[in-house]
Amino acid sequence: MRTFTGIVISTVFLLLTACSAPEQPKAAAPAAQIEGNLQQVMRGVLFPNSNVIFATQSTNPAEIKPASDPSTATDPLQGAYGGWTAVENAGIAMAEAANLLTIPGRKCANGLDVPMNKPDWPQLVQGLRDAGMKAYEAGKSKNQDKILDAADTMTTACANCHDKYRDKPGGDAERCK
Asked: What is the mean pLDDT of residues 141-167?
């Protein structure tokens, strides 16, 4: 009986000790870092991925033959993750790239701040995100009619932003104003 009582007391003591131990502080998430200006993000992420969407308006991704060595293909539609998977991936990349446009401190190619503080910026970024997700869903459905609709949504989202912040009479110096 003494052994049983000792075990019960030891167990209760261990449980109380474990329950009262202070919580370890959680590590802070790493801060977002900016490596490129807005033009570099556009040319490196958005432009090539939008081209995947636009290319599939006239060519069924299922009919695109893989490169002779898909692991070294420079065209995502012919690469190791080609065809409709490339469309899905391009859509996700576009949607995720919207997050890159909201990182504080990013600059335009002319050194001006990205116009994140402008009241229309969140809606413009959301338009890009929505277009990316529409392209992703079109890729999942493997339906070219949906690709046409997604490409139209993407064209509109890009034009809405470019008309206001990129395509300026004064060229690069006037961008992001």
From this structure: 95
Query: Residue 108: what pLDDT?
Result: 94
**What's the Cα-to-Cα distance from 92 to each of 97, 111, 120, 158, 162, rounded to whole Å?**
8, 28, 23, 16, 21
Write down how long the chain is: 177
φ, ψ dihedrals at 140, nearest 5°: -65, -35
Q: Is the separation of the CB atoms in 111 and 163 below 8 Å? A: no
Tokens 């030891």 — which residue? 10
For the chain, list the domains and their CATH numbers: 33-174 (1.20.120)
Adjacent-strand bridge partners of 107: 113
Identify the pLDDT of residue 176: 85
User: Rounded to an integer, what distance in angstroms lies between the CA atom of residue 132 and that of residue 35?
Assistant: 22
Q: Which of 73-87, 121-135, 156-170 shows the lowest per-residue confidence on average (mean pLDDT)?
A: 156-170
Q: What are the tokens at 131?
A: 């277009």
Q: Look at 171 and 73; give whichever has higher pLDDT.
A: 73
Largest CA distance in the chain: 92
User: Can you say how many angstroms the Cα of residue 79 is from the centroid of all Cα atoms in its chain?
Assistant: 20
Report pTM.
0.81
Partnered with residue 113 across adjacent β-strands are 107
